[in-house]
């Protein structure tokens, strides 16, 4: 079985895109509320957000691409799980304390414990990602064994898991569109689960099981890299771009439908993680990065620091965000893109600096 012996520059680019999309999502200074304003620009801004739904899934895909083809060491793996759990708690406490001083909102020890216990959004909600990774890593040893020694059973698991996650969501998406647009009912997926009767049979009801599918698919895709590379560059790029346009359009229309029924803008990013369009976009983006086969120091550095960037970005954003929001002229999509690029580089620099400080560096590596 082939193993990755050097950095994959395409995966570096995917991880860089992933952290860029995460920060672009969290730095949404622009208004995209097309419910309150019917101008085309608001619909365009909402359409742009559909590609951002690939942000977190890209991390799981890239992780699976890499780890399924490495030699597995259970002892190191358990240490990694414990490290992620410790990082979640330590960074939860650090983030709360630092944000208290930034915001001037001083909390009692009881309030801090409550926020930490509930992983409360607005303070440390973004750390859910570490929880998702731990959930996935807990079952990874079993997946790795099956992947290495019984590929048919592994494929069976991926298909079944995919059906109960992406398949379930997709069927309900179609059902909701039919109910709201054809039957003109106000019921949505929040009220009706077409497959709810099968809940008793569903072993994948944990909130992040879609992450397992992304990772497994990443492991499988690695073995087809040569076949994909054999397809003419122009042809595969056209197909990939077409797939992205169609998938984003489907997710956009779905979001518009849900938003109009609910009377509030549907979060096409957070709610889009486990949708088929996002899965298609992940694969299409991977096909596009196959063209990137040379080293770029900036992209490689960002890729190596994605965890650090993720952990510190909310703190830095709490400082910079209010400055931007004070100027209405800056609250545009184009400024958001430029700001996010600069923000990624700034967070990367801070992460690199922290990694050079004895003891403290262990907070990131």
Automatic annotation (TrEMBL):
<feature type="transmembrane region" description="Helical">
    <location>
        <begin position="276"/>
        <end position="294"/>
    </location>
</feature>
<keyword id="KW-1003">Cell membrane</keyword>
<feature type="transmembrane region" description="Helical">
    <location>
        <begin position="237"/>
        <end position="256"/>
    </location>
</feature>
<feature type="transmembrane region" description="Helical">
    <location>
        <begin position="46"/>
        <end position="69"/>
    </location>
</feature>
<feature type="domain" description="Acyltransferase 3">
    <location>
        <begin position="9"/>
        <end position="350"/>
    </location>
</feature>
<keyword id="KW-0812">Transmembrane</keyword>
<feature type="transmembrane region" description="Helical">
    <location>
        <begin position="153"/>
        <end position="171"/>
    </location>
</feature>
<feature type="transmembrane region" description="Helical">
    <location>
        <begin position="208"/>
        <end position="225"/>
    </location>
</feature>
<feature type="transmembrane region" description="Helical">
    <location>
        <begin position="81"/>
        <end position="103"/>
    </location>
</feature>
<feature type="transmembrane region" description="Helical">
    <location>
        <begin position="123"/>
        <end position="146"/>
    </location>
</feature>
<dbReference type="InterPro" id="IPR002656">
    <property type="entry name" value="Acyl_transf_3_dom"/>
</dbReference>
<keyword id="KW-0472">Membrane</keyword>
<feature type="transmembrane region" description="Helical">
    <location>
        <begin position="333"/>
        <end position="354"/>
    </location>
</feature>
<dbReference type="GO" id="GO:0005886">
    <property type="term" value="C:plasma membrane"/>
</dbReference>
<keyword id="KW-1133">Transmembrane helix</keyword>
<keyword id="KW-0808">Transferase</keyword>
<keyword id="KW-0012">Acyltransferase</keyword>
<feature type="transmembrane region" description="Helical">
    <location>
        <begin position="12"/>
        <end position="34"/>
    </location>
</feature>
<dbReference type="Pfam" id="PF01757">
    <property type="entry name" value="Acyl_transf_3"/>
</dbReference>
<protein>
    <submittedName>
        <fullName>Acyltransferase family protein</fullName>
    </submittedName>
</protein>
<comment type="similarity">
    <text>Belongs to the acyltransferase 3 family.</text>
</comment>
<dbReference type="GO" id="GO:0016413">
    <property type="term" value="F:O-acetyltransferase activity"/>
</dbReference>
<dbReference type="GO" id="GO:0009246">
    <property type="term" value="P:enterobacterial common antigen biosynthetic process"/>
</dbReference>
């Amino acid at each position: 079985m082939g193993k990755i012996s050097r950095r994959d520059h395409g995966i570096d680019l995917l991880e860089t895109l992933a952290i860029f999309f995460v920060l672009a999502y969290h730095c949404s200074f622009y208004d995209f509320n097309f419910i309150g304003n019917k101008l085309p620009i608001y619909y365009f801004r909402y359409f742009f957000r559909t590609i951002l739904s690939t942000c977190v899934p890209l991390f799981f895909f890239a992780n699976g691409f890499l780890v399924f083809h490495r030699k597995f060491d259970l002892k190191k793996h358990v240490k990694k799980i414990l490290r992620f759990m410790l990082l979640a708690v330590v960074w939860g406490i650090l983030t709360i304390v630092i944000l208290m001083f930034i915001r001037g909102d001083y909390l009692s020890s009881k309030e801090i414990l409550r926020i930490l216990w509930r992983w409360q959004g607005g303070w440390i909600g973004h750390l859910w990602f570490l929880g998702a990774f731990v959930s996935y890593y807990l079952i990874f040893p079993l997946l790795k064994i099956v992947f290495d020694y019984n590929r048919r059973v592994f494929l069976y698991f991926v298909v079944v898991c995919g059906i109960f996650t992406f398949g379930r969501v997709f069927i309900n998406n179609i059902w909701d569109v039919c109910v709201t647009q054809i039957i003109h009912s106000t019921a949505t997926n929040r009220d009706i689960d077409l497959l709810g009767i099968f809940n008793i049979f569903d072993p994948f009801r944990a909130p992040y099981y879609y992450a397992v599918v992304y990772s497994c698919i990443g492991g499988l895709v690695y073995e087809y890299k040569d076949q994909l590379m054999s397809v003419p560059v122009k042809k595969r790029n056209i197909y990939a771009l077409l797939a992205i346009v169609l998938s984003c359009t489907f997710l956009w229309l779905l979001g518009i439908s849900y938003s109009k029924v609910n009377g509030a803008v549907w979060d096409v990013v957070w709610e889009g993680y486990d949708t088929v369009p996002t899965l298609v976009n992940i694969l299409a983006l991977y096909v596009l990065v196959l063209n990137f086969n040379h080293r770029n120091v900036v992209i490689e550095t960002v890729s190596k620091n994605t965890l650090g960037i993720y952990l510190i970005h909310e703190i830095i954003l709490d400082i910079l965000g209010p400055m931007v929001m004070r100027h209405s002229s800056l609250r545009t999509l184009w400024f958001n893109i430029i700001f996010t690029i600069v923000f990624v580089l700034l967070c990367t620099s801070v992460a690199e600096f922290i990694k050079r400080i004895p003891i403290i560096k262990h907070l990131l590596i």
